[in-house]
């Protein structure tokens, strides 16, 4: 896409709220900082999409547990002084006008108007920081300019079940958005936003899914966005601003249809599934793409060492040490993971470690009988997420034997959406059954 279309665009990536549905993965980090795919963070997805689309002026708006996100961005994204690009954090802060936390998506953008209300910016692209997808925003920008829209919303065809959890739009025969309803639940409200197959075909949408869901990706004319935010106290785009713009009939809202892979990583179940799907022979999303790679923090790690290990349909990141006799199936193993002998790991995501354990500390722990960094000999782990820097002893079983959907948090973790989740820095003694 010609740079002339993208060099007057500023991107805002919203870091989200407390991330309660992803807890305990968000216990000490924000949602965009959650590791995915063994060596990436969720924030790497929208930033990489921006960079590949020719957008290099990027702000990340955060407010909860943002320290690790700050560190990751500082260590990952650096632009030369001649290109004028940047990726900067806009952390929530008290000002003379505002002393509270962000109250919604629109409020988060409103508080940061001074950073994009500038003469060298025509368009503002608003993105979510917790989604997995690959998109060329340049095409969306070109469509926005071609149709002379004031707002363009990326839309994904979904079925009825998915529609109840999304903002759903309906369009007219001119492809303008005429209705926007957040999370329709009843048959009556679903019928109101069900799209006509003729309208979908006109957009080039070939899916048999009859609902157009907002992907949380919005492109605004900068001047309109500033005026809207200054003239209203609305806190959320989907619940308040879009319905109001449509109700007045004075504004031109369009959709940009998208039919590729897109996953909202909003729950532990969705996060676990998205990671395990990466291990399929033909995964729905690939981090390996020659021309549209996902960027992340560069690390200088040795190759992983596997001694007599059986591995099938799994991803093994750099710097791992996996002991003899271990079996790894349908799993993702993160950077610097240490896994003992005769360990069985199935359908799980082991996030790895932030650093290698010093030898003197490891010797001291071994001498005292404490678990060392990593996963001890003889462990069995199934359908689990083991967060970073665990110290799991020998012969520990982490299996949801009872098939529980959710279970209360204890000293070793919890069960969410049927997945066993072990938080960061958790110590589990030898022979524990969870």
Outline the secondary-structure elements.
Blueprint (H helix, E strand, L loop, with lengths): L2 H4 L2 E6 L20 E2 L3 E2 L2 H9 L4 E6 L4 H10 L9 E6 L13 H6 L12 E6 L2 E3 L3 H11 L3 E8 L1 H4 L3 E5 L5 E6 L4 H7 L3 H6 L8 E11 H10 L5 H12 L4 E5 L4 E3 L3 H10 L27 E2 L3 E3 L2 E2 L4 E2 L4 E3 L2 E2 L4 E2 L4 E3 L2 E2 L8 H10 L5 E2 L4 E3 L1 E3 L4 E2 L4 E2 L8 E4 L2 E4 L2 E4 L4 E2 L6
Parallel strand pairs: 1-4, 1-6, 4-5, 8-12, 14-17, 15-18, 16-19, 17-20, 18-21, 19-22, 21-24, 22-25, 23-26, 24-27, 25-30, 26-31
Antiparallel strand pairs: 2-3, 6-11, 7-13, 8-11, 9-10, 9-11, 28-29, 29-30
The CATH topology name of the largest domain reads: Spore Coat Polysaccharide Biosynthesis Protein SpsA, Chain A
Extended strand count: 31
Count of alpha and pi helical runs: 12
CATH class of the largest domain: Alpha Beta
C-alpha termini separation: 52 Å
GO molecular function: ATP binding; glucose-1-phosphate adenylyltransferase activity
Organism: Isosphaera pallida (strain ATCC 43644 / DSM 9630 / IS1B)
EC number: 2.7.7.27
Protein name: Glucose-1-phosphate adenylyltransferase
């Amino acid at each position: 896409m010609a740079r002339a279309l993208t060099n007057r665009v500023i991107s805002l990536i919203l870091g989200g709220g407390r991330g309660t549905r992803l807890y305990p993965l968000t216990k000490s980090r924000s949602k965009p900082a959650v590791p995915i795919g063994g060596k990436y963070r969720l924030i790497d997805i929208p930033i990489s999409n921006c960079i590949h689309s020719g957008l290099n002026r990027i702000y990340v708006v955060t407010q909860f547990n943002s320290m690790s996100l700050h560190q990751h961005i500082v260590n990952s994204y650096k632009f030369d002084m001649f290109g004028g690009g940047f990726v900067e954090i806009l952390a929530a802060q008290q000002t003379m006008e505002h002393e509270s936390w962000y109250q919604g998506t629109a409020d988060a953008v409103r508080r940061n108007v001074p950073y994009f209300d500038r003469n060298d910016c025509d368009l503002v692209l608003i993105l979510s920081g917790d989604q997995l997808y690959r998109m060329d925003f340049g095409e969306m920008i070109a469509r926005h300019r071609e149709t002379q829209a004031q707002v363009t919303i990326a839309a994904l065809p979904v079925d009825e079940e998915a529609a109840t959890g999304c903002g759903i739009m309906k369009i007219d025969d001119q492809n303008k958005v005429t209705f926007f309803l957040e999370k329709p639940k009843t048959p009556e409200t679903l019928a109101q936003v069900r799209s006509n197959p003729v309208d979908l075909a006109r957009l080039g949408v070939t899916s048999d899914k009859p609902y157009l869901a907002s992907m949380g990706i919005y492109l605004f004319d900068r001047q309109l966005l500033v005026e809207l935010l200054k003239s209203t106290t609305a806190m959320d785009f989907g619940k308040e601003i879009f319905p109001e713009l449509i109700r007045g009939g004075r504004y031109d809202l369009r959709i940009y249809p998208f039919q590729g892979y897109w996953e909202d990583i909003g729950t532990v179940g969705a996060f676990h599934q998205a990671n395990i799907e990466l291990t399929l022979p033909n995964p729905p999303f690939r981090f390996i793409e020659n021309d549209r790679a996902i960027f992340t923090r560069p690390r200088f790690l040795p190759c992983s060492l596997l001694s007599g290990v059986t591995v099938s349909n799994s991803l093994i990141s750099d710097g791992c040490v996996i002991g003899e006799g271990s079996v790894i199936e349908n799993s993702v193993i993160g950077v610097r993971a240490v896994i003992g002998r005769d360990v069985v790991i199935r359908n799980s995501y082991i996030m790895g470690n932030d650093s290698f354990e010093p030898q003197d500390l490891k010797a001291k722990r071994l001498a005292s009988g404490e678990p060392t960094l990593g996963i001890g000999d003889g462990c069995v782990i199934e359908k689990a997420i083991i967060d970073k820097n665990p110290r799991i002893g020998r012969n520990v079983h982490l299996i949801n034997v009872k098939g529980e959907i959710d279970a209360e948090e204890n000293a070793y973790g919890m069960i969410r959406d049927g997945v066993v989740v072990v938080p960061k820095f958790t110590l589990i003694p030898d022979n524990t059954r969870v």
